[in-house]
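Collaborator request, handled under Task 6.
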Amino acid sequence: MHTSRASEQGYTLLIMMTFIVVFVTMTIGMLMLINSEYHASRLQYESMKALYLAEAGIERAKAAIMATGGIGAVPSTFQLSDTGVFNDSQLDGVIVNISAEAEGGNIFKVTADATVRNSKRVVVAYIIYNPRSNVFDYPYFLNNWGWFYGSGITANGDVRSNGRFDFRYGPTVEGEIYAGQEIGGGENVLGKAGTVQDGEYIYQHPNSPILEMPNLRDLTYYETRATAKEGVISSGGTTIVSGVYGDDEGESGNIVLIGTPDQPIEINGPVVVRGDVVIRGNVTGQGTIYAGRNLYVAGNIEYDDPPNTSRPSSDDIETINQWVDDNAGKDIVGFAASENIVMGDYTSGNWQWLANNYLFGMGSEDVGQDGIPDTDDTGEDDGTFQAGYEDLDEDGVFDENYSWTDVQTGADITAFNNVPEGVEEFNDIATDNISKIEGIFYTNHSLAGWGNRIVVNGAIISKDEAVASYYTITMNYDERLHSRYNDDPNWLIDLELPFSEHAEVVGWWEEAP
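Structure tokens returned to the collaborator:
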């Protein structure tokens, strides 16, 4: 068979033309795909920039609220120009719009939006001014060294320490353990926290983040809130304290509060007593007493209208939430001291033993750069006061250790206001036979005392703790305190408890433009 050269050339040309058409088609397709991907990437890039700018609007509002305590200073807009962050002139002239509205109490709802070219993002957040600190999420929180020494100690709820946390003799923790450093004796813990899985204690968390402790050096803010919220302490229909106590004629600044089943001490809203507070007996209401010096728990403190049970029946979150809802209107009271909380009769022999063996050796601020004792870090135990990081209570004074001056009342008990007839000495009011205290007890110094089969329904939060009891100590956490309820702008119970940061974003989400 024979084929001419011309027909061969025509066949080759056809193949080449087909190849060129296919190549051009593929190239055009690839260019279109690249162009589409480029535009999609650019759109995504612009969308992310718009999101970051909207979030910056939320932070701008937070800063304004933190600086002024309200939304009046929140800007309605702010304009950006490229500062090299994105290396893109698209930021020039971009406007971020901000709106803020009060939701009640110290809660504000802030909305911020930003548009970059064709991309717009909208972010909404709830911001709390002076929010309640997360240290109140625990029945027992220590800013330094935590210790449970005794088989009779039981904590129902999570416990936490910013330093070490040591356990001896088989205490029980029906919750989780958090420590800023190591957990000593964790193998001795009974209850949920002692659960072992695959050879590890799954509910023990050493080297956890440090939680900032609120500071009550200056009660000016709380005095302002006490006046604004019209906080009151009363009994039998008679007002004892209105707002701030100690600035009017006849008010020594030191007060005795003794409640009975017939006439409990009623606390509603925040109140400030500028000196010492001595309290015992029945209490009722929802509020917080701030003591400008020490708070003395002279005997049992019991709610007149307590929750229906001391704890939810299980740690299932739905069960806990139901318990919280069921007990929202029941008594819950905070007790906060600028200096110390003293429990029991400090003039007794029991107290002499406790103070000399535990309390007086634990108060030095010569703790080094990390603010925690017994860590051998820079500056610890060098005899020099480094005010920049060792002034734990920010009062400008080097606290070397606790002494009887810190424990005793600042004035003779007979000079206090509201003293019952016949009282001449502190031990005429106080007893070491304390068996129940209900409430939230807070101090950024020491909480120390003595009791007999003590039950705490609420929480104990302090820098240092020295509490001893005959036989047992049981701590039942009051779940109504937990910060998870702060995510709701109508959160359950606002006691005006101490705060550790001036503003906090407690929940945010994105809305469609």
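The cover message to the collaborator said: "The helical segments are 5-68, 220-228, 317-326, 349-357, 387-390, 404-407. Residues 5-68 form the longest helix (64 residues). Please let us know whether this matches your experimental observations."
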